[in-house]
Backbone:
């Protein structure tokens, strides 16, 4: 009798855990990178100037305004940090992953979603990328106390190695031309095209 009660309790707990795993607020959801890669179309990649094995991935949310994409991301996972929407741009930090939303320059009805791991962000973004969005003290806590000064000097010496974000004017790290739309199964652009 005790074994059948114990078996029934185990089955009940397993069913409960399974049901919770499928609910909206589940802790079993995929990470933000997986969510973005399965929800939106891969548009392009940007190769790191420091490490050719690192990329920022650019996705496109077609016919979705920035505020709608922002809400979708937040409903999937609460960010550790996020900026306000300012001048058609918003930055999130999810567990050492930087996600930047920008209005598409080609079509304001589309939103570009840039996903970069912390190492890519530290070694490629210029300090101006974060100005007006995230506090310098927060970025210093993440990248190290003298990141702003050190990176500013590097950007002044080699501005072509200082990435300003996908929709930013000027050159792209690892790229020499304006991006073109890529299929979701291809990695686009840059020196490492096709890796």
Residues:
């Amino acid at each position: 009798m005790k074994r059948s009660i114990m078996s029934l309790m185990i089955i009940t707990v397993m069913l409960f855990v399974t049901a919770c795993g499928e609910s909206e607020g589940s802790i079993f959801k995929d990470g933000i990178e997986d969510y973005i890669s399965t929800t939106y179309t891969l548009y392009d990649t940007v190769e790191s100037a420091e490490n050719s094995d690192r990329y920022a991935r650019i996705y496109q949310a077609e016919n979705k305004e920035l505020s709608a994409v922002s809400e979708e991301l937040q409903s999937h996972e609460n960010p550790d940090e996020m900026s306000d929407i300012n001048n058609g741009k918003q930055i999130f930090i999810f567990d050492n992953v930087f996600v930047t939303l920008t209005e598409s320059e080609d079509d304001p009805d589309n939103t570009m979603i840039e996903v970069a791991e912390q190492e890519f962000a530290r070694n490629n973004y210029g300090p101006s990328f974060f100005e007006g969005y995230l506090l310098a003290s927060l970025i210093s806590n993440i990248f190290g106390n003298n990141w702003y000064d050190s990176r500013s000097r590097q950007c002044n010496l080699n501005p072509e190695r200082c990435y300003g974000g996908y929709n930013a004017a000027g050159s792209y790290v690892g790229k020499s031309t304006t991006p073109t739309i890529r299929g979701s199964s291809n990695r686009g652009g840059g020196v490492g095209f096709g890796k």
